[in-house]
């Protein structure tokens, strides 16, 4: 299960599933940045360019949307156990930049159904 993996391993899994099935991200050119706090903290960017996804640790590009949340809430959100809108409304998730892009990302990640991955 993803909850037993490190944040880095979760990002590797996200990158892998997006490369295996690029259809949900076709036509997108967006940089998402995650500032993750907690015991397993770090800054990660998800760079999506014309159906290709790349995850980098640190800041490689200027983000279109920055999401800040704890490592535990990040994993819950990725696994579909924490709704992004609810997390934002309760202060568990902070968003800078485009709110529309943040909502779009949640829909995309839900299509990959990462809760099923080992």
TrEMBL record:
InterPro entries membership: SCP2_sterol-bd_dom, SCP2_sterol-bd_dom_sf
Q: Coiled coil where?
A: none
**The protein's name in its UniProt record:** SCP2 sterol-binding domain-containing protein
A Pfam family: SCP2
UniProt superkingdom: Bacteria
PANTHER family per the UniProt record, alphabetical: SCP2 STEROL-BINDING DOMAIN-CONTAINING PROTEIN 1, STEROL CARRIER PROTEIN 2 SCP-2 FAMILY PROTEIN
Q: Which residues form the SCP2 domain?
A: 16-109
Q: What is the lineage of its organism?
A: Bacteria, Bacillati, Bacillota, Bacilli, Bacillales
């Amino acid at each position: 299960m993803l909850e037993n993996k490190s944040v880095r391993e979760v990002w590797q899994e996200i990158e892998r599933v997006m490369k295996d099935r690029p259809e949900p991200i076709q036509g997108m050119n967006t940089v998402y940045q995650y500032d993750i706090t907690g015991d397993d903290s770090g800054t990660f960017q998800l760079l999506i360019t014309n159906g290709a996804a790349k995850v980098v640790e640190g800041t490689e590009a200027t983000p279109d949307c920055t999401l800040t949340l704890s490592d535990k809430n990040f994993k819950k959100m990725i696994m579909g156990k924490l709704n992004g809108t609810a997390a934002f409304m309760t202060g568990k998730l902070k968003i800078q930049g485009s709110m529309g892009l943040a909502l779009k990302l949640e829909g995309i990640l839900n299509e990959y159904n990462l809760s099923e991955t080992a």
